[in-house]
Design brief:
heterodimer; A: four-stranded mixed β-sheet; elongated; B: 624 residues; five-stranded mixed β-sheet; four-stranded mixed β-sheet; 13% strand
Chain lengths: 156, 624
């Protein structure tokens, strides 16, 4: 699939191609494309006059960046300490079972990406799961199918 | 919300004085009822936005818009009771509300002044129903100096901040204090860094003040990465101007021209509120060139983190702002000498900056009168895990763990037994029940083998396995280690492997000895705080819970019933009522049985997912 690099170019121009803006540039590119496509990384490298290895280095160092296309729905399970002691790992296992993928993977139909995070700072209401930016409080094994159900229904 | 748009700059110090006086007057003259809906991230997760919509609709229908101000505030701190509202001027605290409760609140409480008992907090011990916020045991023992303004403020309104005397401390600083006097005040107050290490804030400022440089920076470290800690998020979401005011005062004191708020990407609401607040401050001339007509200039930017725990370390954070991989570097030189782009830089944590306006307002002596000998003021803790009253707790330094966990926190849920409290995040440790009367300050926690850290306090009961907790933190740390130095990169990995072996029943007593030896080596040989403190969770659990490690190794048993490889599920026949609940949820079809007959669990099919345990209402599932 051909990737339109116009939005990436616009983002780079808005930051005036400054090297120090590498991280915000990558953040905005990811917001547009949902991940960091290789051609965009090459463009960033060229425009900022940074070696590609440094750009990829930053893109792989920080957890928020993804080099793979992510699914239409992103399910993020919090595994902070408070969520951990309240059963977060069991909730994650249930998502893994129901979606048929491991944490960090995307379903073959590109519908779901399952991710984990080390703390969302909503520790009082754990275990917390965020789906497409919506927070679900005090989740449990049984709530997993309830969370996924409306998303399965949606037609792409 | 402010009804008028103000793009006009505040031209002078006296203009700011007038403006604050006007807004304070507005608050004093307020005759309307104010409904403050707790609407931080946790509140929103529990439905505060739907509640706000219902209030809006109700106010319209009842024609109450002129009589009632609806305010979406930051977090009120009592997260367990979300979504909650406080109705002023009476201060009535209603908890766990749903949109359907709104009409009753408007017609009975707002219009007729009646208290609705069903919406009040119920004390689980005494059964009493306190009406007001300050009467609830959770709030009673707290001293909410930093967080206390949250329920009073619309965090998106600068006028609201003015109306509680916001920016008065800046006003005092710019009109009557020299930078040296500001630093003297901060030193005298005894304020120490709230991010974890507890370095004296005033000393850090003095150090940076003395550096000769054409340009200096200040940074607010809002990369609150410790899992289990969220006080910085709450403060940035609920009262962003207070942090900004602290930063402007700090910039004046050390002579900084530019500053950054480095905030986690995982905190979208905090990013939004602090961005808006910075823009508001710039628009009225509290930031920018010649602030309030003086020759002091300072501006502030946002830098968003990208999800790396190590960036909470100051040199890694600086690297990240500079657009590089967040790897720490050797200190000295300290950032106060050579920091962001090689310039003198002061980095303080959100809560530290939030304390600065308070010290200027009430005086260094007043601040120093709170707390213990070495630790002054209050500290915000996030009280979470296996505890009844979860939430953000602000208490004077020196309070005991018992007061926090039992008086404020209301003890352990479901009648279970308190086992340990984990403080200080992955760099901290687990404190056992015998230390429950320990007064909390920087030194006492360090002596006990933990640290203050940013203030996470995760309570654990007898169903929490301490070996599993150690494994959890090691997994976190090996994942977050930046990889620069070998003792941390390989050390945390090997520590994790050793502890994982133990949790899987494959550990030996020899391995336990290796574990201890390696833990000390990682501590001593690592470059930055991450590696130097990474073994703390292992060392502290070994110190206080060695018997649990030994049970895993010698008896191949997990006493808390957590470690999967060592536990078995079965059904207690005498307790099973044959209700089919477990059978329905079992993903493996491992449970068979008929209605009203005792069910049977086939262990060969069981994957130990825990669904049956969660579903059973009769405690008939046995894990051992």
């Amino acid at each position: 699939m051909e990737i339109d690099l116009t939005p990436a170019q616009e983002i780079i121009s808005r930051f005036k191609g400054q090297k120090k803006a590498l991280i915000p540039i990558l953040q905005e590119i990811q917001e547009v494309y949902n991940y960091l496509p290789e051609p965009a990384l090459r463009l960033v490298s060229k425009s900022l006059n940074l070696p590609l290895i440094d750009v990829v280095g930053v893109a792989t160092f920080y957890r928020a960046f993804s080099l793979q296309p992510r699914g239409r729905h992103v399910v993020t399970v919090c595994l902070g300490t408070a969520c951990h002691v309240r059963g977060g790992p069991k909730v994650l296992e249930e998502f893994e079972r129901q979606l048929g993928i491991k944490a960090g993977e995307t379903t073959p139909d590109q519908q779901f990406s399952l991710e984990t995070v080390n703390c969302l700072g909503c520790c009082a209401i754990g275990p917390v799961v965020v789906v497409d930016g919506n927070y679900h409080a005090q989740t449990s094994i049984r709530k997993v199918s309830k969370i996924l159900k409306p998303l399965h229904k949606e037609k792409p | 919300m402010s009804p008028r748009k103000r793009a006009k700059k505040i031209a002078s110090i006296s203009d700011l004085q007038t403006l604050i006086a006007q807004q304070k007057g507005r608050r004093q003259m307020e005759t309307r009822t104010v409904i403050a809906v707790s609407s931080g991230t946790c509140g929103q997760a529990r439905g505060s936005l739907r509640l706000i919509e219902a209030f809006k609709k109700g106010l319209r229908q009842d024609g109450l818009q002129e009589k009632v101000t609806l305010k979406a505030t930051g977090c009120h701190g009592f997260c367990e009771a979300e979504p909650n509202v406080i109705i002023y001027p009476q201060g009535i605290f209603y908890q766990k509300l749903e949109p359907k409760h709104v009409p009753a609140i408007l017609s009975r409480t707002v219009l007729n002044g009646e208290i609705i008992p069903e919406f009040l907090y119920v004390d689980p011990v005494t059964g009493e129903k306190p009406v007001k916020e300050e009467e609830i045991p959770f709030y009673k023992k707290q001293l909410r100096l930093v967080l206390g303004a949250n329920p009073l403020l619309d965090p998106t309104s600068l006028d609201d901040y003015f109306s509680i005397g916001g920016y008065e401390s800046l006003l005092r600083v710019l009109s009557s204090l020299t930078p040296e006097e500001v630093i003297e005040n901060i030193i005298k107050s005894g304020l120490r860094g709230r991010g974890g290490a507890g370095f004296p804030t005033g000393k850090k400022w003095e150090f940076a003040r003395k550096q000769k440089s054409d340009w200096k920076y200040i940074i607010c470290n809002a990369d609150e990465g410790d899992p289990g800690a969220y006080m910085d998020r709450s403060l940035l979401e609920g009262n962003p101007h207070r942090v900004i005011e602290g930063m402007i005062i700090g910039a004046y004191a050390i002579g900084a021209r530019e500053g950054y708020v480095y905030v986690r990407d995982e905190y979208p609401l905090a990013v939004a509120h602090v961005t808006q607040a910075i823009n508001q401050a710039r628009e009225v001339g509290l930031l920018g060139e010649n602030i309030l007509g003086t020759n002091f200039s300072f501006d502030l930017h946002i830098a968003k983190g990208a999800g790396a725990f190590v960036c909470g370390e100051e040199t890694a954070l600086i690297a990240s702002i500079e657009g590089r991989v967040g790897e720490p570097r050797q200190r000295p030189p300290f950032p106060a000498v050579s920091g962001l782009w090689g310039k003198p830089t002061v980095i303080n944590n959100v809560e530290t900056w939030g304390n600065v306006p308070l010290i200027i307002e009430k005086g260094a002596d007043w601040f120093a009168s709170i707390g213990t000998n070495g630790s002054k003021g209050t500290k915000i803790f996030s009280l979470v895990g296996k505890i009844n009253n979860t939430g953000l707790v602000e208490v004077p330094m020196g309070i005991t763990l018992r007061e926090i966990i039992f008086d404020i926190g209301g003890g352990i849920p479901a009648g279970r037994k308190f086992k340990a409290v984990q403080t200080g995040g992955p760099s901290g440790g687990c404190l056992p029940e015998k230390l429950i009367d320990l007064p909390i300050d920087y030194e006492s926690l360090t002596q006990a083998g933990s640290i203050m850290g940013s203030g996470g306090m995760i309570v654990m009961d007898d169903r929490t396995c301490m070996v599993d907790v150690a494994r959890y933190f090691l997994n976190f740390l090996r994942d977050e280690s930046c990889g620069k130095c070998i003792s941390c990169r390989e050390g945390t990995q090997r520590l994790w492997e050793l502890v994982t072996d133990i949790t899987e029943g494959k550990g030996t007593m020899e391995q336990l000895a290796v574990l201890e030896e390696l833990a000390v080596a990682v501590k001593e040989a690592s470059l930055c705080g991450l590696g130097q403190t990474a073994p703390n969770p292992v060392l502290s659990t070994l110190r206080y819970f060695r018997d649990e490690y030994e049970a895993h190794i010698k008896d191949k048993r997990c006493p808390a019933g957590v470690c999967k490889a060592l536990i078995h599920y079965s059904i207690i026949a005498s307790k099973c009522t044959g209700c089919l609940a477990c059978l329905r949820v079992c993903p493996q079809g491992a449970i068979t049985g008929e209605l009203k007959k005792v069910h049977v669990l086939d262990e060969s099919k069981c994957i130990k997912c825990g669904a049956c345990f969660e579903a059973c209402q009769f405690n008939a599932i046995l894990i051992e």
